[in-house]
Specification:
Layout lengths: L2 E8 L21 H16 L4 E6 L3 H13 L5 E2 L43 H18 L4 E6 L1 H11 L18 E7 L2 E8 L16
Helix pairs in contact: 1-2, 3-4
């Protein structure tokens, strides 16, 4: 039997001094601390002797910059998978993430009718479909080894909920998916065997900037 691990990594801290809900807007890079977070995870994976065969990232700049040190640490070429991209969000470009009181304005009401879907962006179920497809392709391509997929908080968290058989509707404040964290899915052949969560850059989270649309 082949044991395969797919590590879902969230990107590091983003330089976002204006608190914009950046979503899929291009050009949002890692902060200096975010770069440090990425290097810390790369060191963690090499120091613990992980057998990483591939590193694949969302096409967004912050994910690419997070993945680069990991790929370099294992002598791998960084690959890109559009299925790992941030959730679509009709509120992107606003500062609602840092000032949620703005949601009281009538112009936003038409977007808030169904928080369980959610009505303001890409459906939770649709995110799970694309993320699980990326996970399945990665584990099949590298059976018996390990793969790092660098994505974003909400898609990673929803993927975890789906594998654990939990409801996708949730309280965003209770997500266990910190910056530069690893949500590691283990498979025995084609069967999901378990999950492990780790924060290799946990000490760098103290003082980190709140991430709007991460």
């Amino acid at each position: 039997m082949a044991t395969t691990t797919v590590h879902l990594m969230r990107h590091g801290e983003v330089h976002n001094p204006d608190g914009v809900l950046y979503g899929r807007i291009p050009g949002y890079r890692l902060s200096d601390r975010g770069q440090q977070m990425a290097r810390r995870v790369a060191d963690h994976l090499t120091d613990t002797g992980r057998d990483v065969a591939a590193v694949v990232a969302s096409p967004l700049q912050r994910a690419q910059e997070t993945a680069a040190p990991v790929a370099a640490a294992f002598g791998l070429e960084l690959a890109t998978d559009d299925r790992l991209i941030e959730a679509g969000n009709l509120l992107e470009g606003s500062t609602i993430g840092t000032n949620p009181a703005q949601l009281a304005h009538p112009r936003y009401w038409k977007l808030l009718w169904n928080p369980l879907r959610p009505s303001w962006g890409e459906a939770y179920a649709d995110q799970v479909v694309r993320m699980r497809a990326a996970v399945d392709d990665a584990r099949r391509a590298h059976a018996g080894r390990e793969v790092v997929l660098v994505s974003h908080q909400l898609p990673v968290w929803l993927t975890r909920l789906a594998f654990e058989g939990r409801r996708l509707a949730h309280d965003p404040r209770r997500r266990q998916c910190a910056l530069a964290s690893l949500t590691s899915l283990t498979f025995t052949d084609d069967h999901f065997a378990g999950l492990h969560y780790a924060e290799p850059a946990g000490d760098l989270l103290v003082g980190a900037e709140p991430q709007a649309g991460a």
